[in-house]
Prior knowledge:
- By secondary structure, the chain is mostly helical.
- It contains 14 helices and two strands, in the order H-H-H-H-H-H-H-H-H-H-H-H-E-E-H-H.
- It has helices at 3-33, 40-58, 61-85, 90-113, 135-138, 144-152, 157-175, 177-187, 189-194, 199-226, 237-247, 252-272, 285-289, 291-303, and strands spanning 276-277, 281-282.
- The chain has a two-stranded antiparallel ribbon with strand order 1-2.
- A hairpin with a 3-residue loop joins strand 1 (276-277) and strand 2.
- Helix 1 (3-33) crosses helix 8 (177-187), helix 2 (40-58) packs antiparallel against helix 3 and helix 11 (237-247) packs parallel to helix 14.
- The protein is globular.
- 43% of the residues are buried.
Amino acid sequence: MEDFHIASIVVSTIRNAPVLMFAALAGLFAERSGVVDIGLEGKILASAFVSAAVGYTTQNPWAGIAAGIAVSVALAMVQAFVSITQKGNQLVAGIAINIAMSGLTFVVAQYIFQQGGRTPDLGAARLSDVVLPGTVLLADIPFLGWFYGSVLGGHSPLVYLAFALLPLVHWVVYHSRFGLRLRACGENPHAADAAGVSVDKTRYLAMLVAGVLCSFSGAYLAIVQSGFFLRDMSAGAGYLALTALVFGNWRPLQTVLGCLMFGFFSAVQIQIEGVDLPLVGRIPGSLIQMIPYVVTVIVLAGLMAKSVAPKAVGKPFVKSR
């Protein structure tokens, strides 16, 4: 590929990754506490729709993001109630949220906006990119101008939030009292309970954090990337985020690296679509769109046996008497 293609792939990777990063870090909190969060996909769709709808109605992207947080947290609490309080099947609860939100967002969008299940274009309600000071002065300097203006700068505030969350999440999980309790509840909830830790409360707090983080993924899709809501626009991002979580062995840094890997392959997919490649020619679009999912299968097949999930994940906690 030519240099400008490589530059485009780097920038596109940075812009594609936050959707997965927010969702994967949300899943990390939930699963570290012992709750399987298969419902990431549904929460992404719900927050994307509500963020787009409220953002368009108010012409305020921050109001849309706040509304997205509210609906994602509400779904996370429903999921927590079924999984933690009622000791229900966590996989079934998550899948139910995914199926319900896939249909409900489309129906409500069609009822409100009458545009085939999508919202109108947000226009001015989209988040604007951050332009770093001195970008214009450095623009003509080879490499430095591009790196400063397009790699470090020129992104939505949510992109910077996604990358800023990495050190914060690492500190919370490994260096805070809440993180210690979180990991204890995911590894040995009975021992945590014996030490005076409320397992149910810790898991509820983890699901609350997961709901907030997952909402940013949906808001980013609608308010930053697309500028509107479209049915099933998450396109499996929640499942890819779970794959990144497995790839990262439920650790923040490795999980984010997995998200960047998927973001890279998505960027490559966009770059090679419709391009005549040497010795290969033009690859059909349907094959190109399969790239992230083929990578997912390869990652799961190669790493699933080596990944060590929290020992109590997916197991309802029943207090010993």
